[in-house]
């Protein structure tokens, strides 16, 4: 019994001593988390963008649902960019961590544009949606230009 408790205590101490970040057990989990959130966001944004560009038939109900999911999931990736997650299976440039304020501004901007996109889909007007899709796409692109490796 004593041996087992000592082992468990040691395991707890080790996991406290080397936290990957406040919310994830290891840096790889944080990276997987942010990539997953960005992927789900992109799939939903991409669907609305495909409707706006005529690559997919416009279904107003699906547009609202997709934009709503993109808006919500778009709030999630940032928790996965903790201080010790700058190395791993990722295109994220190290400049994110040396320029965090700028990165955070881009993230905020994208969240704002995604909220506007949801509002635009609720009008049911494809021209209004197109404007919001372009603004959201620009927000994605400007951050990628600075902070994502090619
Ligand atoms: C997408 C996607 C991006 C943005 C960007 C817009 O669907 O994956 O990175 O839109 O291409 O310019």
Named CATH topology: Four Helix Bundle (Hemerythrin (Met), subunit A)
Form type: elongated
Query: Briefly, what CATH class?
Result: Mainly Alpha
Q: What's the architecture in CATH terms?
A: Up-down Bundle
Number of strands: 0
Number of helices: 6
User: What structural category do the secondary elements indicate?
Assistant: mainly alpha
> What is the percent of helical residues?
over 70%
User: Which radius of gyration do the C-alpha atoms yield?
Assistant: 19 Å
**Main beta sheet:** none
Let me know the CATH homologous superfamily. Cytochrome c/b562
**Which molecules are bound besides the chains?**
ascorbic acid
How much of the residues is beta strand, in percent? under 5%
* Number of self-contained structural domains: 1
Termini distance? 54 Å
Write the H/E string, N to C: HHHHHH
Mean pLDDT: 91
Molecular structure report:
By secondary structure, the chain is mainly α. Helix content is 71%, strand content 0%. It is built from six helices and no strands. The chain has helices at residues 2-17, 27-52, 60-73, 95-98, 100-123, 126-147. It is elongated and about 45 Å long. It starts with a helix and ends with a helix. Ascorbic acid binds at residues 42, 45-46, 49, 137, 140-141, 144.
């Amino acid at each position: 019994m004593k041996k087992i408790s000592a082992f468990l205590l040691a395991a707890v101490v080790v996991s406290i001593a080397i936290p990957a970040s406040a919310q994830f057990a290891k840096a790889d989990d944080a990276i997987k988390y942010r990539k997953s959130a960005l992927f789900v966001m992109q799939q939903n944004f991409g669907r609305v963008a495909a409707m706006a560009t005529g690559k997919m038939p416009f279904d107003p109900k699906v547009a609202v649902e997709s934009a709503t999911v993109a808006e919500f999931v778009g709030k999630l990736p940032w928790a996965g960019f903790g201080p010790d997650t700058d190395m791993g299976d990722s295109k994220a440039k190290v400049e994110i961590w040396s320029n965090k304020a700028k990165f955070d501004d881009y993230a905020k901007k994208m969240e704002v544009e995604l909220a506007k996109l949801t509002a635009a889909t609720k009008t049911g007007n494809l021209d209004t949606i197109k404007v919001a899709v372009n603004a959201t796409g620009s927000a994605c692109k400007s951050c990628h230009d600075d902070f994502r490796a090619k």
